[in-house]
Amino acid sequence: MLRFIQSQTHLAGIVVLVLFGLLYLLIGPVNHLMFRTYALDLGAYTHASWCYGHGILPDRSLFRADTDPMLADHFDLMLMLWSPLTWVFGEWTLLLVQISAVLFGALGVLRLTRSITGDAVISILAMSAMLGFFGVFTALSFDYHSNVVAAMLLPWWLLAHKQGHKTWSWVFLILMLVAKENMGIWLFAVCLASLALPFLREVRMRTLLFQAALSLVWSLVVIRLIMPWLDSSGEYHLANAFLPKDPMSAGLLDLLMPLIHDVNGAHPLGDRIKLEWYLVIFVSGGWALIRNWPYLVMSLPLIAQKMLHQDPAKWGLFDQYSVEFAVILPLAAFTWIARVPDLRWRHRAGGITLLLVLAGTFHALYLPEEHRDPMHGAHDRLRFWSMGHYRPVFDRDVASRLLSKVPDGAPVSTMPPLVPHLVEREYLYQFPLIGNSEFILLVRHAYPWPMTFEEYTQQIDWLMNSREWALVHEEAGFLLFARTSQG
């Protein structure tokens, strides 16, 4: 196999990209088709992108009881770039953008690794390790997030610097910065760490230092000035999301303990979830961070913002919270492996590293500590080989029929799994937010987040007895209400 890769580099690269591309299409798009995408985040982001494409400034009224600009929630300018695509792909736009970005990032890893090592086999193995990394699968299984797209530009930024394309390095840096308000904090560390990368020794130190400073200043200005100005509360709404609350007065132990310990007892498996993540990261190439230390420096802000977060959902293997490591770890591991002088042993080490990455991914998708309970786990979203993955949450025929009964462009309030299917309109709300909705589409048996079932039942009873709303269609648990003339 390794000899075939060496002799047919271009063909092998194309085959790997096509195979993983087809695999990814079985994850995010299938989840959307099966009603396993949600108001937060695919619905909100696609709706925002659609609004930008139609000359409308999106606000947070879809998921919050205010009309502050969407940029007050996350400062994501990248959604504006994809907005013209919503005219063509509609509700599918961001899912396709995200998959395309991952494949583009993989191509960047291939070209960068080949440029550094000159070894075709190592470059193909590095690309395969990036595509097969667990953080890519878990990110694609849960809606869309611009940090996924931004992370995939990192190898291209490094390649632009290595090849002396200063303008392109600025283009990629700016694209990464505008994806989210905290990207500059990570990129500050990335730029400083890049000063120590052997293949960037020819890059002028002043350029990397200037990009580091700009990255940090951008994030600080956006987080401390722009977003509080946009938010009606006058604050950055994630300001208290991290532990400890007062890092300047905290001792070293207070700073380090939350990295490995659930200090507030926020989750019954808190410590085990964190330990599991570290172990899977180590197996998936994290061991190379010790030997290839500049990549460790790049990783530290990611680890800190992940493990110091108050929300235990951020600590584990799932969702988009590990995707940046998909590009860092293969670069760290395979550029270090490339130093092995004996060609056969080098390629064997690369093959073993890829197998370990895939083993880590298998564990994350099949045996995760966090989601052992099949009733509350993410198995159907993740396990693309399972029949449950292709079983819709709702009756597809009924759901499609009810969705089609909502007139195009009409303001509507609906359940989180239905929001991403109704994004092509100016006014859209996640129930129980109603706003100026003309229609409300509910499903009796759906999980009513953010409400309890008791609260949800009370809301349905209120609608049934309200003079403002009339039940115009009921079928298989679906309820479609229309606002009456008295509403």
Characteristics of this structure?
2 domains; mainly alpha; single chain; five-stranded mixed β-sheet; 23 helices
Summarize the structure.
This protein has 487 residues and is mainly alpha-helical. The chain folds into 2 domains: 341 residues, no CATH class; 88 residues, no CATH class.
Describe this structure in words.
- The chain is mainly α and 487 residues long.
- It has two domains: 2-33 and 74-382, no CATH class; 396-483, no CATH class.
- The chain contains 23 helices and five strands.
- It has helices spanning 2-7, 9-25, 28-33, 39-53, 78-82, 86-89, 93-117, 120-131, 134-140, 146-151, 154-162, 166-177, 183-194, 205-230, 252-260, 270-286, 288-291, 293-307, 325-337, 343-366, 379-382, 396-405, 453-465, and strands at 412-414, 428-430, 439-443, 469-475, 478-483.
- The chain has a five-stranded mixed beta sheet with strand order 2-1-3-5-4, with helices on both faces.
- The termini are far apart.
- The mean pLDDT is 91.
SSE layout:
Layout: H1 2-7, H2 9-25, H3 28-33, H4 39-53, H5 78-82, H6 86-89, H7 93-117, H8 120-131, H9 134-140, H10 146-151, H11 154-162, H12 166-177, H13 183-194, H14 205-230, H15 252-260, H16 270-286, H17 288-291, H18 293-307, H19 325-337, H20 343-366, H21 379-382, H22 396-405, E1 412-414, E2 428-430, E3 439-443, H23 453-465, E4 469-475, E5 478-483
Parallel strand pairs: 1-2, 1-3
Antiparallel strand pairs: 3-5, 4-5
Helix pairs in contact: 2-7, 2-8, 7-8, 7-11, 7-19, 8-19, 8-20, 9-20, 11-12, 13-14, 13-18, 16-19, 16-20, 18-19
